[in-house]
């Protein structure tokens, strides 16, 4: 798409996230954070895209400018904003750290660190995922452990050892005190922190081949709708309340899907990125004769296969769950101008999309049609 | 043995003086170590360090990394799109060294644009202007001063503009002088006239080269006239300008400081004496200009590269660049570009691959030693048809697998290229590591990816051992949800089924449990070490009165459906199975 130029940053980007904008203002986000991986010295960096220049051609959108950066021990395997000023990261050394942005000096520094949050008996284990709902932080790792931390408290609040016999790749909040994890044997597990037992409240998995799952996202409004992506690049939509099988399966990518995101304010839009170097924008349009074509890019209409009967509910809900062609059409668009190396991470907020690749490039698009 | 082209550089190793050094080659470096053997023949002590000597420091520069990534993107695109050649000018100038950029642009002008006589000079003028951009800065400085014509740099600027063929800018500067000296008005007007009348070849126009030549000679004669009849004699500056316009070599050479390089001198000289120069004539002028400009000092590597370029000796250019520049980036991409323009003769080297492939392999191998840039190297190997795959197969196994995410990426690369041996090897490494850390689910996941039945068997054995030791299963979430993966190995199937037996028993579905147990025993997938356990499991079933068994299992067991006591039936069944187990020939 026009308006998406690459910025080469001399580091492979593993994660990128927009800094949250205050809910009262209708501003578009202007600052994002990136984490690097596979470097001898990895870094957390904060970038600014400046003000929106209206009236100018899309080609001349400002390059992201580096605001500040800070060293990070180990690969940045996950990154999330705790609030406007704090960033939580998950490291390949098994450490979980909180970075504080000092507003006056515009510098980043570590304000808190849990060094052996994830470990094996004799070794470090990479921490693969971190989510937060201030002040609570939940982390998961290759050691199959789930940790619950609270920012500003050094002691761990709760640990579930051996929650999983395989690697937990990603975690998301389902409801307050409930989380959902995905692992490398293709299972989705829900955990309730209010329960004392260390067993999952529920286990969901696909009927056929158990493909490792790498990412998970929850629908922003309907807490039982969950999207997952895995090693085979298929996008699955699940209804967490019922069923042992996904509600719909869609062919998305030709290699591992690394991240899936519902748009936070307009959940008819879904974004996925993959090892195959593509970033897809999925839009659920209401069933009508005139299909809405998205600007530019390559355009495919994908009709999804449904595995279970629809659960009912609002139009967008049932559309995601059933993927039924009569209830809505699913349109997908490639967001990047050409094939690149793996797109490791993406984030979308308002009309802005940012993504990072293994080709050491960042792409920013400020005119996402949502 | 071939002769050396240049003297090899010496690197000092901080080891004990006078000792012999041992060494071993690595993919992009040498490991050197101290030994106890002295060069005098005696034996002494030595330090216990190993030194890593690395030639290519460039790949660790953050600025150059941007270039490597961008050029990788362009390289991949170039392999697929044949017609479109990318314009790298802006980017290369920012990030490459001055000299590399200079050479690259010249190669573009001479080899790729391949301009004929007439336009050749115009391109060369562009080339010089691109690499001598300080004139405009100086001009700004002069113009912004209080009285530009009094500024010490004024005439330097005028001459610089002139020697770069920028007549309009020169005239604009000169007008300031003309305005201030009404007495010399006629002289100024005459000079301005000469400058404005200088013919410039227009490649797109209707004028042929011969016509242009005639026009130019006419103008040249005009300038000569002005010089001969001393129109500018009273002002040394204008007289100098006139001589330069005539192409007077001595006059131009006097401006050495302004020219600063012999190739600038070359282009200026051509501009004012042979503007219709043909490509084939270039090297005569190049050699004489180099000699005239700086007769004392020895030619530097850059000079010989440029000379080779002017001689259109592509192979010599590539060879000299390979020696002079640290990193293979430059020659690899230049050669690839030239190859795509079909400018390289297919020049087979001793070991079977052509020059382009050789250089690309060298470049990519260098990238592979980098902790991060190895991913770029993969695409380069893909486009080396003869040896690329072999190189990749060897190098990919040396990528350290610190996290699962990295291992997955490496695996994906191998799977996409059907490198099944490497897939198996990587999966085995990860599975063993997981097993060592007691992550049985992860280990199984890696075995499934590699379709490694032997390892799956190993993992199942671990589970079964655990069960025997503790009496319960660990990691039930894994065993209960094996799904089709169960079929990967017999032992794994047994494990899954055995767990199912336990579940059935726990749900009091004794007849189903018994059937399953029997099938496990007779299907011969139970490991021998487990038979005792199976028999022990059978015992409680003997006491269950509700057990119903299928009428006939196989010919060794006969059933008499009329038997009144189910208990007897059951007991008989179990006992005959035990009999079979004891006697069966395994």
Automatic annotation (TrEMBL), chain A:
Q: Keyword Nucleus: yes or no?
A: yes
Q: Which Gene3D superfamilies match?
A: YVTN repeat-like/Quinoprotein amine dehydrogenase
| InterPro entries linked | WD40/YVTN_repeat-like_dom_sf (IPR015943), WD40_repeat_CS (IPR019775), WD40_repeat_dom_sf (IPR036322), WD40_rpt (IPR001680)
- What protein is this chain from? Nucleoporin 43
The protein's matches in PANTHER family, at most eight in alphabetical order, are given as: NUCLEOPORIN NUP43
**Source domain of life:** Eukaryota
Task: Give the matching SUPFAM superfamilies.
Answer: WD40 repeat-like
Enumerate the UniProt keywords alphabetically: Nucleus, Repeat, WD repeat
Major place of localization? Answer: nucleus
Q: Which organism is it from?
A: Gadus morhua (Atlantic cod)
Q: For this UniProt entry, what's an example GO CC term?
A: nuclear pore outer ring
Signal peptide residues on this chain, from the entry's feature table? none
TrEMBL record, chain B:
The text of the family note is: Belongs to the nucleoporin Nup85 family.
**Family matches, as Pfam families:** Nucleopor_Nup85
Its primary localisation, in coarse terms, equals nucleus
**Stated name of the protein:** Nuclear pore complex protein Nup85
Gene Ontology terms: cellular component? nuclear membrane; nuclear pore outer ring
Which superkingdom does the taxonomy of this entry point to?
Answer: Eukaryota
Relate the protein's function as given in its record. Answer: Functions as a component of the nuclear pore complex (NPC).
Where in the cell does this protein reside?
Nucleus, Nuclear pore complex
Keywords, in A-Z order: Membrane, mRNA transport, Nuclear pore complex, Nucleus, Protein transport, Translocation, Transport
UniProt cross-references to PANTHER family, sorted A to Z: FROUNT PROTEIN-RELATED, NUCLEAR PORE COMPLEX PROTEIN NUP85
> Is Cytoplasm included in the keywords of this UniProt record?
no
One GO MF term on file is: structural constituent of nuclear pore
Q: Does the keyword Kinase apply?
A: no
Tell me what organism the protein belongs to: Gadus morhua
Q: Which GO biological process categories is it annotated with?
A: mRNA export from nucleus; positive regulation of DNA-templated transcription; protein import into nucleus
Subunit note: Component of the nuclear pore complex (NPC).
């Amino acid at each position: 798409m026009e308006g998406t130029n690459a910025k080469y940053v001399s580091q492979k980007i593993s994660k990128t996230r927009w800094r949250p904008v205050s809910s009262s203002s209708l501003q578009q986000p202007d600052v994002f954070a990136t984490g690097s991986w596979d470097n001898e010295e990895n870094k957390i960096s904060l970038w600014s895209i400046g003000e929106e220049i209206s009236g100018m051609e899309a080609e001349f959108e400002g390059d992201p400018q580096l605001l500040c950066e800070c060293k990070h021990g180990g690969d940045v395997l996950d990154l999330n904003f705790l609030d406007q000023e704090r960033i939580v990261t998950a490291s390949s050394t098994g450490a979980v750290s909180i970075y504080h942005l000092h507003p006056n000096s515009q510098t980043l520094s570590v304000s808190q660190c849990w060094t052996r949050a994830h470990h094996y008996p004799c070794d470090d284990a990479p921490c693969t995922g971190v989510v937060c709902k201030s002040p609570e932080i939940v982390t998961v790792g290759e050691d199959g452990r789930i940790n619950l931390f609270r920012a500003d408290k050094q002691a761990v609040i709760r640990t579930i050892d051996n929650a999983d016999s395989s690697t937990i790749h990603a975690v998301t909040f389902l409801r307050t005190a409930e989380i959902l994890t995905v692992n490398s044997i293709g299972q989705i597990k829900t955990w309730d922190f209010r329960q004392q037992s260390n067993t999952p409240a529920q286990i969901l998995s696909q009927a056929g081949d158990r493909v490792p799952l790498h990412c998970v996202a929850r629908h922003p409004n309907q807490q039982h709708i969950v999207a997952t992506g895995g090693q085979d690049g298929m996008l699955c939509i699940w209804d967490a309340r019922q069923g042992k099988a996904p509600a719909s399966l869609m062919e998305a990518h030709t290699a591992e899907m690394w991240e899936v995101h519902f748009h936070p304010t307009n959940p008819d839009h879904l974004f996925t990125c993959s090892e195959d170097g593509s970033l897809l924008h999925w839009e659920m349009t209401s069933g009508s004769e005139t299909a809405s074509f998205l600007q530019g890019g390559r355009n495919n209409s994908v009709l999804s296969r449904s595995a279970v009967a629809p659960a009912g509910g609002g139009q967008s809900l049932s559309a995601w769950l059933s993927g039924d062609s009569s209830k809505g059409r699913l349109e997908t668009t490639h967001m990047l101008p050409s094939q690149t190396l793996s797109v490791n991470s993406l984030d979308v907020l308002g009309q802005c999309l940012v993504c990072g690749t293994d080709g050491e490039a960042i792409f920013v698009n400020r005119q996402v049609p949502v | 043995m071939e002769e050396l082209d240049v003297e090899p550089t010496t690197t000092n190793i901080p080891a004990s003086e006078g000792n012999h050094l041992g060494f071993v080659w690595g993919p992009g470096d040498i490991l050197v170590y101290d030994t106890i053997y002295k060069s005098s023949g005696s034996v002494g002590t030595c330090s216990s360090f190993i030194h890593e000597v690395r030639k290519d420091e460039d790949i660790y520069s953050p600025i150059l990394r941007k270039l490597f990534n961008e050029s990788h993107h362009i390289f991949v695109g170039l392999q697929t799109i044949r017609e479109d050649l990318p314009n790298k000018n802006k980017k290369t100038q920012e990030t490459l060294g001055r000299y590399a950029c200079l050479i690259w642009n010249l190669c573009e002008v001479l080899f790729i644009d391949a301009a004929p006589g007439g336009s050749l000079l115009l391109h060369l003028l562009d080339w010089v202007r691109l690499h001598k951009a300080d004139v405009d800065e100086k001009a700004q400085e002069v113009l912004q001063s209080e009285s530009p014509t009094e500024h010490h740099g004024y005439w330097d600027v005028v001459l610089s503009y002139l020697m770069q063929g920028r007549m309009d800018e020169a005239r604009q500067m000169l007008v300031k002088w003309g305005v201030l000296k009404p007495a010399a008005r006629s002289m100024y007007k005459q000079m301005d006239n000469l400058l404005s009348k200088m013919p410039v070849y227009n490649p797109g126009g209707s004028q042929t080269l011969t016509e242009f030549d005639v026009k130019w000679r006419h103008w040249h004669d005009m300038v000569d006239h002005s010089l001969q009849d001393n129109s500018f004699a009273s002002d040394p500056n204008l007289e100098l300008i006139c001589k330069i316009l005539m192409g007077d070599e001595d006059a131009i050479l006097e401006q050495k400081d302004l020219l600063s390089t012999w190739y600038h001198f070359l282009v200026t000289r051509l501009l004012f004496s042979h503007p219709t120069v043909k490509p084939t004539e270039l090297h005569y002028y190049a050699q004489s200009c180099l000699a005239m400009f700086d007769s004392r000092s020895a030619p530097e590597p850059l000079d010989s590269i440029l000379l080779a370029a002017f001689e259109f000796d592509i192979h010599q250019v590539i060879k000299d660049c390979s020696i002079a520049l640290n990193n293979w980036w430059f020659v690899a991409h230049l050669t690839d570009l030239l190859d795509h323009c079909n400018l390289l003769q297919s020049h087979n080297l001793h070991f079977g691959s052509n020059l382009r492939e050789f250089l690309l392999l060298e470049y990519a191998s260098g990238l592979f030693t980098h902790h991060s840039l190895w991913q770029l190297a993969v695409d380069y190997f893909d486009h080396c048809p003869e040896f690329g795959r072999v190189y990749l197969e060897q190098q990919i196994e040396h990528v350290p697998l610190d996290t699962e995410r990295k291992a997955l990426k490496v695996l994906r690369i191998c799977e996409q290229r059907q490198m099944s041996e490497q897939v198996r090897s990587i999966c085995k490494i990860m599975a063993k590591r997981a097993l060592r850390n007691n992550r049985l689910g992860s280990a199984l996941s890696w075995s499934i990816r590699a379709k490694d039945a032997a390892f799956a068997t190993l993992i199942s054995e671990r589970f079964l051992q655990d069960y025997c030791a503790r009496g319960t299963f660990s990691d039930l979430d894994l065993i209960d949800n094996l799904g089709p993966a169960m079929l990967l190995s017999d032992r794994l199937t047994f494990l899954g089924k055995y767990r199912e037996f336990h579940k059935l028993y726990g749900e009091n579905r004794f007849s189903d449990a018994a059937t399953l147990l029997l099938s496990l025993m007779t299907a011969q997938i139970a490991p021998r070490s487990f038979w005792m356990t199976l028999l022990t499991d059978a015992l409680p079933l003997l006491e269950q009165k509700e057990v119903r068994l299928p009428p006939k299992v196989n010919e060794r067991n006969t059933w008499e459906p009329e038997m009144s006591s189910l208990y007897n039936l059951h007991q008989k069944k179990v006992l005959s199975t035990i009999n079979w187990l004891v006697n069966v020939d395994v």
